[in-house]
Structures are given as structure tokens and as C-alpha cells.
Amino acid sequence: MNETMNLTTRKILIHCHIFKNAGTTFDWSLQRTFGQAFIDHRDDEPMRTGAAYLGPYLQEQRQGQLKALSSHHVRFPLPELENIKLIPLVLLRNPIDRAGSVYSFERQQKSNSPGAINAKKLTFPEYIDWRMEPQANGVLRNAQVRSTGPTQEINIIKAQDYATALARIKNYFLFGLVAATFPYNRSGPYRPKYLESPPKIYF
After folding, report:
1. Per the domain annotation, does 115 fall within a domain?
2. Is the Cβ–Cβ distance between 169 and 145 less than 8 Å?
3. 195 located within any domain
4. In which element (H, E) is residue 163 found?
5. What percent of the chain has pLDDT over 70?
6. How many CB atoms lie within 10 A of CB 24?
7. Which domain holds residue 39?
8. Is 45 helix (H, G, I), strand (E, B) or coil?
9. For the whole model, what pTM was predicted?
């Protein structure tokens, strides 16, 4: 990230949206705060290519008015851009709370995906056991480390990958911690308590 700042430097917040980490609520706040200067980026394939795509995309958007962008597929390192300072932000969550949120979401999801099918037929402990198997995708296994570490593509996390993610969070990201809003009932799935009025965000 370019640390050189002057009076003409623009700041753009880059929300690294991790699935089921309250990112949709946070994006709602960004939309409410910045209006058309916020983009919820959903064109996943080009975003996965990294800085070669993101750099030109940011420079082209809204004639210099863009203030915040959110994507599930931000890749690092971020591009180095003249007169633009990119501020990466990530929300982290207790992995057990997050697992319950994923389970609850997939139980209600109208989808034929393996996750949705298994969430509907398995108990929560059985679902977790299945999600830990190598053939299941990595929506739960080390998801937060992969999203903040050297790459999202690896399936097995090593000690150095964890160290890289931790250093990046401490020295590079703005980060927040998601409160436990999905208390688990042992006789049933997580039941969400949605925030009615998330706060505005200023930076």
C-alpha cells in the first residue's frame, strides 16, 4: 500500500467481505454513508485476478469520486496507485459463531449446493464434521486466515500462512470484531438477531 500522502491523495476503503462476517450489514452502512460513491463489486472472476484488474478499475470509477468498495474476492497485494491510498478493512468473527451463522443460512437457502443440502439434513455437529472433510469446500476451514493471508486459493494452512495473516491484520488492515449475534440453541440451529439500525461509518 502506498504510504505517500499529499493534499491531492484520495482515500478508498476496500472492504474485504468475508462470507457470514456481518459484511452485508457493514455494506449497508457504507451504502448509507457514501451513496453512489460506494460499489458492492460482484463481478467475481476479474476481481480474483488481483491488482492487474483492481488498479485500473479503481482509477476509472466515478471520475475520482469512489470512496469505498466491497468484494468477497479481494486479492493481495493491493495495487500501488498514484495519488490514491487504499485502506483495506476486514471484519473478523469467532469461528464457532461464524460456523453457526453459515449453518443457519444454508438451512434456509433455496439451493441445491452441497452445503445447503447437508445443512438441511444434518445436525449442527454433523454439519461441522462434514465441513471439515477435504472434499467439502473451504467455507469454514481456515476461511479467515485464507482471506487475510498470502492467498485464498490454498486448502491447507501452514504456520507461515497464519503468521502472514496475523502480521497483515496487525500492520496493514483496519479490522473489526463481530459481536456474537447468533446464540446457539443446543436443540436447534442458530437464530439470528438482526441489527435494526447499524451506525454510520466515518473515516
Report:
1. yes
2. no
3. no
4. helix 159-171
5. 81
6. 12
7. 11-93
8. helix
9. 0.81
User: HSE-up of 97 (CA within 13 Å, CB side)?
Assistant: 15
pLDDT on residue 28: 93
Summarised one tens digit per residue, pLDDT across range 152-186 is: 666 678 888 889 889 888 888 898 888 754 444 44
Q: What is the CA radius of gyration of the chain?
A: 18
Strands 68-71 and 38-40 come out as parallel
Q: What pLDDT is stored for residue 83 in this prediction?
A: 87
Quick check: 170 and 92 in contact, CB under 8 A?
no
66 in a domain, yes or no? Answer: yes
Structural domains counted in the chain: 2
Rounded Cα distance, 62 and 66, in Å: 6
What distance, in Å, lies between the first and last C-alpha atoms of the chain? 17
pLDDT at 131 over 90: yes
3-state SS of 170-192?
HHCCEEEEECCCCCCCCCCCCCC
Helix (H) / strand (E) containing 52: helix 51-60
CA torsion angle 120 126 131 133 (round to 10): -130
Of 93, 123, 143, which residue is a domain's last?
Answer: 93
119 φ, ψ (degrees, to nearest 5): -65, -35
